[in-house]
Amino acid sequence: MLFFHPSQILFLSSLLTGTLITFSASSWFTAWLGLELNLLSFIPLISSKYNQYSSESSLKYFLIQALGSSIILASAPCLLFFNWTPHTLICSALLLKMGAAPVHFWFPSVMEGINWYQCIILMTIQKIGPMLLLTYSLTQPTALILFVSSILCSLIGGVGGLNQTLLRKIMAYSSINHMAWMIAALLLNESLWMLYFLVYALVSSSVVLIMHSQQIFHFNNLSSYNFNSPTLKLTCFLSLLSMGGLPPLLGFLPKWLVIQELATSNFFLWLSFLLFSALITLFYYLRVALTSMTLSSPKLKSSLPMTSKTTLTAIMFLNLFPILTPLSLTSLF
């Protein structure tokens, strides 16, 4: 059972309000106000005077987001005085705000210093506003920037996670890799991006829930914490492989749709980069998943509470949804 402090509920509500203002705004100024409200609400959620790492992460996050906001504001005089559209500057600022390559360097270090629940907010809710604003700034130059950013996200997200032993950094590089697919979906079809983002949020939340319940932060923790339950082992295994996009689990479905759209549009070079990086991402998730399945020691006992069987069963069925859907349809008809 989760219990939040009233101040956390207040800041979480204003964070969601800032996101709603951003993607329902009718002008760039209102969208910028929504981004600022989102930023000022997230800083108190991740900062803590008892944890120097979270304070460092909140400072890094504030400086980067303030830089992105200042670039958006600086793009306004370009239209007034130089008479050229500032979409390139706005696109670059939005890529910086959501941690996409090549301006991704702050994202893994911020993820490293915050807890798991704050990680899921940073990986999901904090990307909604900037990604939707990218659709408003689409021109031929910005489409080229997004194409290059998608390829760089795929390569950096794949290769960057190979030598990591901290699970939050692995999740950060995986999020950068998923951003490559989301940018591709955003350029192809906005509804496809919404489906991809929804599935990504569900699958990553299932992984975070398991990691938080056992307080696992390091690769070595997988062999020493409370993985004695076979249901917990299997659920963690399926969630990690679904996060990596292994068919026929739920995480593969939106990738399949993006692959189909890219192949139909003849973007085979772009598709080859995305598929190559997805295999690398699947490799390091498979390494974590096999560790959680095979190296768990029954001799070591933990006082951490077990995740409820209902939650584990729901997560398992969520990741097995593509397999179970044809079976349920067959039974209906």
Automatic annotation (TrEMBL):
Signal peptide from the UniProt entry: none
Transmembrane segments: 20-40, 61-82, 144-163, 193-211, 232-252, 267-290, 311-329
Membrane topology type: Multi-pass membrane protein
Keywords: Electron transport, Membrane, Mitochondrion, Mitochondrion inner membrane, NAD, Respiratory chain, Translocase, Transmembrane, Transmembrane helix, Transport, Ubiquinone
One cellular component (GO) term of this entry: mitochondrial inner membrane
Family membership: Belongs to the complex I subunit 2 family.
Name listed for the protein in its UniProt record: NADH-ubiquinone oxidoreductase chain 2
Organism: Oplophorus spinosus
